[in-house]
Amino acid sequence: MSRQNVLETQFAKKLPATALEALTTPDAQLHLDSPMSAHAAFVFTHIYSNPYPKKRGVSEKRHCHGMSHVSRVAAYVPVLANLYRKHNDSDAQQLSTEDIQLLQIAALFHDSAREDDEHDRWDNESATLLYVYLTCALNVSKEKAVMIAEATANKDYKSTFAPYQKISENENGEIIWRAVEAEKSPDKKNIYQKIIHDADCLDIIRARPAFDASYLDFHKDIAKTKPEAFKEMAILITEARGLIEDEGDTYRRLNPTKKTEYECTEGLQKIQQDIRKTTTLMSQLGGNLFSVEKLKTLSFLTDEKPYLSGSELSSENLRAALREGKIFARGIIFSSCRAKKHDESLTALELRKTFRATGIPTQSKKDNRVEKSGNPSRSVTMLGHGTVTYARAGFLVLDPTLAQIEKVHGGDAGTGVGKKLAKRQTESEKSDALKKLHFQQQKGGFTAYKRGFSHNEITYHVDHYDAIYYSSDTRVEENGSVGVNKLSCCEIMGKLNAIFLQHEYKTQYHQTKQEFLKQWPEDGEARFLALHGTNDTLPIIKYSGAHNHIELESAETFSEDNIVKMWGDLAEITMRNDLLKEHDTGLCSCSIDDLKIYCMYEGMQQVNEFGRPQSADSNYPPELKERVSKEIEERRAKVLTEDRKKLEDQLSIYSEDDFDLALLHATLPALLKHPDIFHTYRQSIEMIIETALRSSDFAMEAIFSGFGTHGVSYFLKSKTLPSFSDAAQAIANMEDKDPNHYSPDIILFFVLAKKLGMNNLENRLKEQTLEFIQNELSLPMVIINDPNRRLTLAKEFRMMMHIFGVQDVYKKDYADFLWNLSTLYHESHDYNFQKFDELYSELIQDAEIHQVFKDKLQRLEKYPPENFDAFVDRVAIRRYLKMDLPSCDELVAYTTELQTRNGGNDIDQKNGILKLLNTQDEKDAVVTVFLKKMFADIQNDLPRISYAIFNRCIVDIQQVSDYFSEKTKAIAISSFDSILAMVTQFNWDQQFLSYFTKLMMDLKLLGMPVPSIIIEKIHERATQIIASSFDQDSINKVIEIFQSLPSDPQTLDILKQLEEKKSQVTKLDDQQSSPIVGFTLGQFRKNTIDTTVNDNIAVKKIFSEHPPKSGSFWHGKDLASISFECIMRHALGENNKGFFGGHSGTDTKKALQDYGIKFDKEFLAMSIDEKVRTVSKAINAAPQQHALSKAAEAQGPKK
After folding, report:
1. Does one domain contain both 104 and 243?
2. What's the helix, strand, coil split of the chain in %, to 5?
3. How many domains would you assign to the chain?
4. Confidence class of residue 324 from pLDDT cuts 50, 70 and 90?
5. Is 109 exposed, middle or buried (0-12, 13-18, 19+ CB in 10 A)?
6. How many angstroms separate the CA atoms of 374 and 361, rounded?
7. What is the pTM of this model?
8. C-alpha triplet 585, 587, 589: angle, nearest 5°
9. Is pLDDT larger for residue 912 or for residue 1040?
10. Does some domain include residue 338?
């Protein structure tokens, strides 16, 4: 059988026959020593130009693992080889030029057999294609081909528990891979595996929000212990990140147009050109292999001048500060928008707080209004080494003061929202945390992130700013992604935001200076200048995390001419992108100020969440602002003229009679931007729409569901009618192929018809709508099973009747509908009192509806309510109608009566009742009833797990806590303590301890003290940990809990012991570290182990015969340097988590029984040291193949 036939049986679905033929046929023009560009052209032509195999009938492009990726990996190979050689790796120093050629070819093939962009399951197949190419197409010896193919297939060996894969070829030419037994596997990676692994690992920057160099073999073997090598590795990571950015392949910043330039036969050549142009280390090491002597003379750490504090600001000094981690950034999102509660921009609000000084009263009316200084607890970010900023522009603090740092959080900690409740760090803790943060940045960033960002956060007391930054990188507040149509705008928007910040700073600078002069006439100016300097205009700085670059911009960059041009360019780019959309966003006819806002912030909706929209040129001088407006108007006219000409050319070949639905669908987006042209075809369009409506399944039910993007509910939120362009979207989505799937929004068509004067269509739509409303209003309530939807429907009906001008016609029916809906709503399990309250407060303002409700209520109150919901309903309606409410005695009496009559928990709407009461005495009486009922109900549920009881108490108390007085709060505390005293009779589960921090926060928010019984239990748990635990995470968790406890002597003493324990464990970690994140030898190592036990053999044996399952603690961990003792301490210790089956010890027990371990009383009574010693000896003494292996063999081969 020919080699091609052999390949076809395995790769027919992956690659075309022509590719397989090329791989197996010698090429006279292609040799091993041919230029690498020739090999790259081959793999693109025959492999990477083909999409992935079809899955479910669909072929996918090679987005993440195509030609640009493998070409970069190939380009990294000589760089890494030279770095290994420079730092005395003896194997690397033996590499030849031919070895580098083979490694680069391997890099080009390492993803060749992939079938998708998910987890790579085709390492062996890719290595097979490499082997065939080397032996058949290039005539490389089989020995070399085997060596390089196995290095490629096993590049991740030792990083996982996957066994070593060995390749062989039988007499029929079939290529076979088999897993090697653990005892016969290599002890470590060879240099070929390391280089291929590191080159591939380095390019993962393109597919992740953060990169961790700990996974690089170069870091594990060399950079981890050699400072110079570590710095060079950091430079390499930075240069790779910048290369990926320049080539349009950055994570969530993909630029398909740019990326496509490298998906070609010349992809590798283009990447090598980029390396020569834009990098330092890679350009020097990315060519030939250098001799060791030559490498020793090379230095890439040329820019090592230290940051000079207090010196004149320069790009050189800024780069030094960036390199040393001495630049903090505070991003300002929607900088020009006006604050919701203040008549100032969000930037002005930020600066006003930053400029606060003790002795000068603030705008607040609080007692401490003259004591405030600066802006404490603000979230800032340490810049450098790939770190992205929170916003496109913001302020910088250079050489921040350690005393003003409150806490270094490391990764994304969500400190930008809510109160800053985190405990402040000590000076030494802050210093250590900053060093750790800066070190981690150089390693590539972070792997622990909340929302997917390579982002760090520090809480800082800001009292001044030194500069303004702008960046075109991905912003955190953009949810980590940038669309391709926005990439060209990013830098312009950053610059314009920075200009706005600069103007606002100057204004606040002079305002505050005047306040100082007013407060201290004699020395006010000196005091002010000492704090904020003499410069009222902050410099603007360009920052790029992707390129780890910072640069001081010249004043000329922001001249008035350039500012006008930037606004014009931004408007033109935005308009052209907008014309590509299927519907008009209103940019063609909106005001210039609205267009400016849209250009800068891409719409109003997101802006409204933070403040009130305002253009970013609002603080410009009037003359400059006028110039900007004129430029934008001229650019808009230019774009619309070009678009109009294009539309006229498109329609010129058709007559009005030729106009059909297909042409309408194709041209409508452009037609709606030019109403005069639209009116030329008005009659034809009206006929087309009417015909489409008559032939469609007009699903009115779906129209009012409120789920559609342009449904009625969408417009209710903004309390405005749909716009002409919104209505047009309904037509733009019309399709005549499948009318059953066509469900237009009738209100949008009505607005469109009214706008265009289509009277017949308008009347027809109106009749259909009113018929639907009338039918719905008269629908019996008993058949309505979704009161929430009906509640939304009621509001939609109200708006619809207003739009069609028939609110008076259906008012009586509408009032009956609302009344019946109220009863149904309260009976629903989905009761939402606040939502219902808001609706009725709005709808019952009408005098006629008010009278209908009053009459119905008077008739209803002649009979007692059937249940508590009905009672609440009556009280609520009385309140809506401004009638007298029931007295406190009536409420309490009726509540008690219902409890007796119905039993169980009928009081699920506590807040609802309390909200209806007017005086504190009334509320106290009802709250007391509720608390007593809570106490009685929980008594009936005991015994239960402690945390469930605590949580329920907190939830019940929270329901009424807003209405506490000192009297009722004391009752709540007493009830809680009584419940806790009862719970102590039962077991306290571990879950309570793990959720203690949340409980503490809940109690703090409720203003309740921590009960003494809880403090005793926490003290007890801490004492256990101090005595026996070496688990760093457990110690840290308990320390965090203790820091939130009241500071009594016993608590402080135990906290001190915990800190000492933490210090001991940390020292052990430093002595013996493991690559496992969150798990180190030092946490388990003791001196009681029998040193004659061969730990390494035990580790290999048990993990080769019992591989850890997916999802277990040890799955995917590198156990090469972990002692067996360490593993067994974790498996047999107090947590008993097990290393085979995940979170239980079941599989651990089963596996150890195979080695003769009996889990009897004698074994269980042993200390942990005795258990580990016993197990170690048993495993080492066991035969090579234990009973389970033999049983498995007897059952036949594994599937």
Report:
1. yes
2. 60, 5, 35
3. 6
4. very high
5. buried
6. 12
7. 0.64
8. 115
9. 1040
10. yes
